[in-house]
Every structure is written in C-alpha cells, then in structure tokens.
Amino acid sequence: IKTEELAEKILSKDYAVQQVYCDPAGAGVQSTSGIGDVEIFKKKGIFPRFRKDKISRSIPSGIDLVRSFVENARLYVSHKCKGIIEDFENYRYPDRKANQQLKDEPLKDGRHDHGMDAVRYFFTNRFPIVKREAIEIQRYW
C-alpha cells in the first residue's frame, strides 16, 4: 500500500485516530519522489511521532520492551486482529548454522516482520526506553 493510500485510510476511519507512530526512517527523503513518508502524512494533516535516539532505534532493545509487556500480561490483542496474531506467532530468529555468530535480530521475512516492527514502533514511542543503553546481544549456538 502506498503512503498516500494509508493516509486516506487513516482519515476515513469513523473514529478519531489519537496518534500515529512510525519508523524514524520515514522522515528521510525517498529518491524517487524527493519527499519522505512523514512529509506525505503531514501534507494530509497527520503528524506521525517517532524517536530517533539510539536506544529507541535498537531493534533488540525494542523487542525487549515489547516482550516485557507480553510477559507481564499488559498487552491484549483482540481475536479480530488475525494478521497481527499471525505475525506474533511467526516472528522468529534465523536458524542456527554451525559455529556462526548471530546477532539478536529477528528474520526480515517481508511478511511478519512489518507487523512486528509496527508494534515495536508503538511501544518505543508510547513507552520510551529510559536509563538504558542500546543493547547488542550476540547469540551463540
């Protein structure tokens, strides 16, 4: 879906969308259009929020934040949200390969990672990570 279409879908909701959070990369300029996604939203009257600090942009730190809400039963996903439930169930890390050092970052499969990225952007913006350093965990198998 194109950014303009997404903005129109948000504006067409029969309820007020309280806040929009996004990937900080959306503030960048696209080479094809010369304008970034955030600017496209702003032109439509939608003002996305995003954090650019190193801790918030750290994928492992963001996943830890989301995991803390899940583990403490502070996150409820309606049974109607079948897509995001499927994303939670299928979000995974790379398979182990002999003597390979793996970063603690999940697979970018082009399907389930987008929904999980969106969940992470919500949590890192709505509940900022404070007084922590960005973590980079090396997984050894």
Distinct helical segment count: 6
Tell me the helix content.
Answer: 40-55%
Largest sheet: 2 strands, antiparallel
Overall geometry: globular
The H-and-E topology, N to C, reads as HHHHHEHE
- Assembly type of the chains comes to single chain
- Poorly predicted spans: none
Sheet-strand content, in percent, reads: under 5%
Count of strand segments: 2
Radius of gyration: 17 Å
Mean pLDDT: 87
Spatial order of strands in the largest sheet:
1-2
In angstroms, what separates the terminal alpha carbons?
Answer: 38 Å
Q: What structural class is derived from the secondary structure elements?
A: mainly alpha
What do you see in this structure?
It is a single chain. The mean pLDDT is 87. This protein is mainly alpha-helical. Helix 4 crosses helix 6 and helix 5 packs across helix 6. It has a two-stranded antiparallel sheet with strand order 1-2. The chain has helices spanning 3-11, 37-43, 54-57, 59-71, 82-90, 112-126; strands at 102-103, 138-139. It is globular, with a radius of gyration of 17 Å. Helix content is 40%, strand content 3%.
In short:
The chain is mainly alpha-helical. The protein is built from six helices and two strands; from the N terminus they run αααααβαβ.
Which key features would you list for this structure?
about 140 residues; 2 strands; two-stranded antiparallel sheet; single chain; globular; mainly alpha
What's the structural blueprint in terms of helices and strands?
Layout: H1 3-11, H2 37-43, H3 54-57, H4 59-71, H5 82-90, E1 102-103, H6 112-126, E2 138-139
Antiparallel strand pairs: 1-2
